[in-house]
Amino acid sequence: MTEAPRAPLIGREEESNTARSALERAATGRLEVFLIEGEAGIGKTRLVTEATQQGQRLGFGAWTASFEEMERVRSFGPLLDALDCHARSSDPRRRDIAGMLLPDVDPGARSDRPFQIVEALVGLMEEEALAQPRVLVLDNLHWADPMSLYSIRTAVRRLAYVPLLLIGTMRPQPRTRDLEHLLHALDHEGWQPTFLSPLGDDAVLTLAAHLLGSPPSSRLVARLSSASGNPFFIMELVDALKKDGQLDAAPEPASLSPDVRLTILTKISFLSEPSIELLRAAAVLGTNFFVTDLVTIVRLPLGELMPRIRECLAASVLDEDEEKIRFRHDLIREALYLDMPAAIRKGMHLEIARLLLDAGASPTRVAEHFLIGAEAGDRAAITVLRQAALEASRSPQTRIELLRAARELHLDDDPEVMLTDADLADALVGGAHFDEAIPLARSLLDRTQDAQLRRRLRRLIARALRIAGRWRELMDTTDEWLQGDLHPE
Q1: Which of 94, 315, 366, 410 could be joined to 417 by an S-S link, Cβ 3.0–4.6 Å?
Q2: What is the pTM of this model?
Q3: In sequence order, which residues have a C-beta less than 8 Å from that of residue 347 and are 6 or more positions away?
Q4: How far apart (Å, rounded) are the C-alpha atoms in residues 241 and 35?
Q5: Taking a C-beta distance cutoff of 8 angstroms, is the pair 149, 129 a contact?
Q6: DSSP assignments along 347-366, one per residue
């Protein structure tokens, strides 16, 4: 696939001016937020690039946090990457923040640790933005994990007088509860998303003329109507027709679906069949992936895969992204992924989860595949989801969601369901969901005679009542245990 010439920002003058105004206000020493909403391929990334370049001309530094669909269980991950917080950092402060994410042996031992991480991240943003104005790009907020979204909410609340511009991109769907909370908080402060509509007819013609170097023919104009004003679709369609020598061919509605998937799949059809099959496997791994993971799931040596990977890189279907390989655009990956039947996708996720697990991948990296592919009664999936929940102890909401998913996989007669329920009750306490955690723990206490589990549940109930400030109920519960000849720990 030959990448089309980069187009100027066409039909987005108003939005570009809005971004520049936000930058100028941020430069005076105040936090600004610029949210961009729109469908895939509508030009969100292009507008962000323009805004970031404007910021650089005004002396702004830039951070970029890109959230991925298959990495939602990686709490804080993209924010840590954006701020360069990792174990090998030369900055002790950044090393300390990365170290705070290491899981506790007892997930309930430091229930406040996630909020300490949030404070540390926001403090780092504040210090560095005061030293140099910053743009923080938050790409694909619809895939962001709960604690990253909470960190952004905290930054907005705390950094009102810091020269910082937050630029967030998102699609209309999906909308998680945590994202809705963030958007509500931003709306309360007067920051509402800028919705990118499809390009108008004049902008479509201007974009096509730029891509071609001359005005499009009337026949091509008729074909471009199938692009529905989506810039990415327009560029892909023009490039495909150029390659096939069909720019001036008569429109054939029956063979030209307005579905972007068809255009993209047609465009990559010139690749070798082995390379296309490689791309299909990669699409199940996610928008970006480790080459070692690809080697594992296709069960071929790297030397045999490299010619196929090089072919996809040369065709601009894939790009290099530091330690990973990524699809050039989300729509390319989605076209390949959604072209497969749902049952096949589900089976591939399950197979990938098992192969990666056997290869030594961490539960966090495998969990998302089990969430999509596992069926009820899958003990390996239940175990991995519980382990991933332990690793996600710094993100209470992620931990809760993983344990709920594990709970749904248990069969009704599975004796180990009580252990998952106990973990869930503990996670609910960590997330301050006391009204759900305490009844769940009490019901488990009534159903088990296991002494170790009973001690754990009593500690959990007491901790929840204490944190919630329900002192009378704590005293009554303690009396009840004493009267029953049970001693609370």
Answers
A1: 410
A2: 0.72
A3: 373
A4: 34
A5: no
A6: HHHHHHHHHHHHTT--HHHH
User: Which residue, among 288, 226, 309, 210, has the nearest Cα to 263 in the 3D structure?
Assistant: 226
Q: What is the mean pLDDT of the chain?
A: 86
- Burial call 41-59: b when 16+ CB within 10 Å, e when fewer: bbbbbbbbebbbebbeeee
Beta strands in 81-239 (DSSP E): 134-139, 164-170, 194-195
Distance (Å, whole) CA 340 – CA 338: 5
Scanning the structure block, which residue is given the tokens 């229930």? Answer: 111
Alpha carbons 93 and 76: distance in angstroms, whole number: 16
Which segments in the chain show pLDDT lower than 70? 1-7, 103-112, 226, 244-263, 267, 484-489
Q: Count of CB atoms within 10 A of residue 110's CB? A: 14
Query: For residues 156-190, b (16+ Cβ closer than 10 Å) or e, as one string?
Result: bebbeebbbbbbbbbbeeeebebbeebbebbeeee
Beta-bridge partner residues of 65? 138
